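Teaching assistant here, posting this on the class forum so everyone can see the example we discussed in section. The complex has two components, and the goal was to see what a joint structure prediction looks like when all of them are supplied at once.
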Amino acid sequence: MISHIIVSGEGPSDLGGSCSGQSALSRDEDFEKGPFFYLIERMLNKYLPEWNKDIFETVPLSITYVSHGYLGKQAKKIVKGQGKYALAGKNDEHKGNVGKLKQAREMGRLAVEHGCQLAIYFHDTDGKNKDKNLTSPIQSKIVKAVDQGFERGEMNAGIAMIPKPTSEAWLICSCKNNYQHCETLEATLSGNDRSEDNAPKKVLANCLGVDDCDNELLTEKINNIDLDKINMPSFNQFKDDLKSAIEIVCGSVEN
Amino acid sequence: MITKIKISAFKSLVDFEIELVKFNCIIGLNGAGKSTVLQVISYISAIMKGDVDTWLKDRGWDNSDVVSNHYPSRETLTIDADFKFNDKNYTWQAVYNWKKGFCISETIIDASKAEQNLLRVYQGKLKTNKGEQDVYFKYSGSILSVLDDNIISFELKKIRDFIIQIANHDLLSPKVMRSGQYAKQGNLDSAGKYLISYVHHLDRNAKDIVKTRIAEYFPQVIKIETAPLESGGLRMFITERFYEDSGEHKDFKTDARHINDGMLRILNILVNQQLDSTFQLFDEIENGVNPEITEKLMDAFTRAPQQTLVTTHSPMVLNYLEDSVAEQSVIFVYKRKDGKTRAKKLFEIPSAKNKLEDLAPGEAMVDLYLENVAFEAEQIEQIEQEELSN
């Protein structure tokens, strides 16, 4: 049964943050949901077994939010002054993402400590020009590092939510070409928000006919997208991993 | 303390600039120019000493070996070195002609009185606060190498002595250290040639201090002794104490010829820290040193009374630095596409700085692709140059 989940994101425009904006660790009423948390809610609603959803009618789903910064500090406390670090082995897959691996490890430990059955770690892939192709391993390397982190934190239902290049790409899929050929967005959009015209934020704003997308507009968009029609490798990975985690915890998953 | 050095052209250091603090740790890929930075600093010291020939001879180099491939016909090296003593800033500017073997022009400025030079050598004239005179005598390197103490100011003397007492250990070699060559009191030489001789000259108290310090790294060491050889050389013995299960101990005395490399290297570093040198330079400090004692070694460097510059390839060395120290001290040296070496504080480069939020300094180093960091550093430098030219 899933009754308590823990999430960690980059900030208010993705998964959210504490209402006061001060707290690195917030729970339930103190957690202000960001637009992409509503996507998680929609997907849980879609894939959780009916019996689990029924429970929410009497006991609402409990949510804990933890900032990346807090996780990083926890991870660093452990290594501080010891000079010890995980040595990279031959063909080390985590080089460049050790910070994310450690954050996921700490998040896994927190999940176990707080009795959370599901943990979701969010991070945009971002990336450079050379990563603008469908064969670049940049996104899957982050997913592997986060998975490895959860494993080290002994959290068996911890998953990575890593949109490529950024979370806006998943929404652009719905409005730019009416869900057609969305996978190419992962190879064409810029991973750099400062990029002049190809930055996902700007492309999405153009699609929606606004100058800038605020959280309210993003949430509205998320609540209306057709989850079955988005066919992008990074979204599919998250969807599949979420379904697997639900199956691990609940024994079955809705389709 | 030297706070900044600018070099016009010395091997791959072309229009090169490096900012220094009390403890400095250079990292970078092989061939980036890390050792060249150490070389140029000790070359500058040799110029101030007026003894470039010995410096070249120790390395088996010719005069022309310091010439940059970028300017093969250039005969001069321009040096700009900033110093800080008791919160006062000074600059030594010198143009050294390696073919002529001396500085063809030289200026020392007190930054607070920029209009007034403490020393100026130009077109055969020497000007100090004691007046102006023709330079009718010959000298090597800097004119300060030959000027008598009573005709130069206290400040000039301080700058000169600081530069002269820079001690470079870039050629450190356990084999050479074991050789036990005799010298009168003085420095240990860049290869450690006079290590045993130096220890030999120490009085009993000073020897005890060295013994106590080495025992912090190797607790079994109880005695360090030296003895002259009939051949004129010296031998050194280290006595170690080992315990039986019964609690009884046995002492073993080992000749320096059989002492491990790591112990000799650390002994050399510790002895150097007791010397009058002002600025210590060590290349690849992790060599021969087991990671278990790296932490103590790093503590010894960061707490050293002298200014220190080390190079390393070891992330473990960096991991033992506090973040605040690493931010100031870790210098990333890289080669640009055109082969010119550049230096930048590693944790001022955004990708490295971001990693420091989650990772310890050494971990951040392992988690970075240094080629990408070099690219990023170069982009920052270009932006800074454009801003300067606007």
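For the discussion questions: The first helix of chain B runs from residue 34 to 49. The first strand of chain B starts at residue 2 and ends at 10. Think about how each of these relates to the inputs above.
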